[in-house]
Amino acid sequence: MAKAVESVGARVRRLRTERGLSERDIASPGVTNAYVSRIETGTRNPSFKAIQKLAKRLGVTPLYLETGSDHVVCPHCHRPPTKRGTKLRTLP
Hints:
The chain is mainly alpha-helical. The protein has one domain (about 1-90): lambda repressor-like DNA-binding domains (434 Repressor (Amino-terminal Domain)), CATH 1.10.260. About 45% of the residues lie in helices and about 0% in strands. Helix 1 crosses helix 3. The termini are far apart. Residues about 85-90 have low confidence and may be disordered.
């Protein structure tokens, strides 16, 4: 049987609850707790800037937050992760 693919919103919720954080705890300027709620429920798709901010708050890479793995090609620049695996390069 095929493994279900976890959405970005489901991944945000899982990581947040595993860490005992509230939506308000991971909110930041430009990413309100209401926006986090909408991402988690799938009614909004997060911008790349929002993914970067949420990833930092959750202690994961933006690539992991978006794809569920740090071992894939970046969907934005189509390059593998940097050696440190924490910084994504975007297209100029």
